[in-house]
Design brief:
Layout: E1 5-8, H1 15-26, E2 32-36, H2 43-60, E3 64-67, H3 70-76, E4 79-82, H4 89-92, E5 102-106, H5 109-113, E6 120-123, H6 141-151, E7 156-159, H7 164-167, E8 175-178, H8 180-183, H9 188-198
Parallel strand pairs: 1-2, 1-8, 2-3, 3-4, 4-5, 5-6, 6-7, 7-8
Length: 213
Amino acid sequence: MLPRVLVITDWRLPRGRLLAALERALEVGPGVAVQHRHPEAPARQFLEEARLLAGLCRARGNPLFVNGRLDVALLVGAHLHLPAAGLTPEDVRPHLPSGRLVSVAVHDVEEARRARGADLALVSPVFSPGSKPGDTRPTLGPEGFQKLAEALPCPALALGGITPERALLLERAAGFAVISGVLEAEDPGAAAKTLYAAAREPSPLGSAPPGPR
């Protein structure tokens, strides 16, 4: 199953608050995944956090993606997310066990063309990111997102300033990747459930996704 909602970690939040929000979101069902992202963390800390998240996800049957670290993904039995500048899906695929997914970051048409071999792409920034108020990159908007989604060889998840209202504008979105939209919501579970329901296209490989439980 490919995720319909992908919650990206923000370790600037107090750890207890972050984990509690993730737990609520994961209760929506196996179509909600977590991406472990913490670029400032030393290697040991990053691994320990990954193990913590792997336990959280495994207990509920939810997917975990590790950002940029093939070694850590292998150590904790997670899927892998690749930043735009770096390894490609074709580089890492031979080293991953069967069944592991690879997601990629995509910001423009050239990066979309390099996504060959990926299972899904996180396309951003669609709108101004709520978690990055200082981000001055031009946003894609619904039309820019659709253009990149059509250029991709895999399903596209929309990332950047995603709210339930904006999600309805993205007809090509197979799902949504969020940070503050879930982690800082008054009710993270309700926020994740609303975004899950807004995804337009079926996300599993070859069948329709199960509904929220």
